[in-house]
Amino acid sequence: MRIPHELPDEFSDETVLIARLAKTNYLFRRLASRYDEINRQVHQIESEEEPTTDDILEKLKKERLKLKDQIAAMLARTERRM
């Protein structure tokens, strides 16, 4: 089953950098792992596999967006140094 909004989909031009940072950067790996975990939760809720309230879904979406912004900033900083 394909889950929408996975990092390689969100940053399709950065898949090599994502893989490299996931192997070499502890903070990036933690952010990416947390992003993936929340993204799966959102997908399960939206697919009606897991019942919840609209408030909880919105909180999860906001957290996912915050993590995505942090990941994007790390990718941009790393790219500038290359």
List its salient traits.
82 residues, 77% helix, 0% strand, elongated, single chain, mainly alpha
Secondary-structure map:
Layout: H1 7-10, H2 15-24, H3 26-46, H4 54-81
Helix pairs in contact: 2-3, 3-4
Structure in words:
The chain is built from 4 helices and no strands. It is mainly alpha-helical. The chain has one domain. α2 crosses α3 and α3 (26-46) runs antiparallel to α4. The longest helix is centred in the last third of the chain and has 28 residues, at 54-81. It is elongated, with a radius of gyration of 14 Å.
Helix/strand order, N-terminal first: HHHH
Number of helices: 4
Q: Write down the domain tally.
A: 1
**Biggest sheet, open or closed, and with what strands and sense?**
none
Secondary structure: number of strands: 0
**Low-confidence parts, pLDDT < 50 over ≥5 residues?**
none
Structure class: mainly alpha
Question: Oligomerization state of this entry?
Answer: single chain
Give the CA-based shape. Answer: elongated
- State the share of residues found in helices, binned by percent: over 70%
Strand content: under 5%
Terminal Cα span: 35 Å
Provide the residue-averaged pLDDT: 95
Gyration radius (Cα, Å) is 14 Å
Briefly summarize what is shown.
The protein has 82 residues and is mainly alpha-helical.
